[in-house]
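hey team, just a heads up i'm posting the complex here instead of the shared drive bc the drive is being weird again. everything in one block, sequence lines first with there labels, then the predicted structure for the whole assembly after. its two chains so it's a bit long, scroll down
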Amino acid sequence: EIVLTQSPGTLSLSPGERATLSCRASQSVGSYLAWYQQKPGQAPRLLIDDASNRATGIPARFSGSGSGTDFTLIISSLEPEDFAVYYCQQRSNWPFTFGPGTKVEIK
Amino acid sequence: QITLKESGPTLVKPTQTLTLTCTFSGFSLSASGVGVGWIRQPPGEALEWLALIYWNDDKRYSPSLKSRLTLSKDTSKKQVVLTMTNMDPVDTATYYCAHSSATRNNWFDPWGQGTLVTVSS
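-- predicted structure starts here --
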């Protein structure tokens, strides 16, 4: 099973600041990595697929990069609605796995 | 517009079997490449992938739960059913179903709203 590790666990930032989130896989997943955003009481929403493709309707301030084992999600300038928990997921190997999440909170 | 909604009991007793139904609209589970997955999330914890059923009836299960899970689909009713046997309090979680297809690069998009299942005597 591929283990995904996310860092940091919590990111405390102010609106307008840049957020950099990391996801590391225990073995290569190629580009088969996605990022999801989850707000309290809501279902996760797909943000980035195949490591770097923004999903439909996702603002340009969200960008993803990486391949193999190291991936990054960047939010270039935090908007109030961006404070949430972010999960990465791989679908390179069965079973699919999710990371433990990074919480982006208001400083 | 693709939508999914989970339904089932909110409370089950330990050792009982949980049956959850995902009712969807906006896509056909008989179309090539389409799938419906199940993911759960214990309160305050991370997401855990459980299972996935494809248009061709191919089914994939989490190895850690495989002995307890069964997936089935009813294409005409636009439903996918997940059963989990021998429920335990640690299975208390919000259970989500989600759409997967080549048009969404085979990722989970969108998700249902989720249904909270509590396991308690």
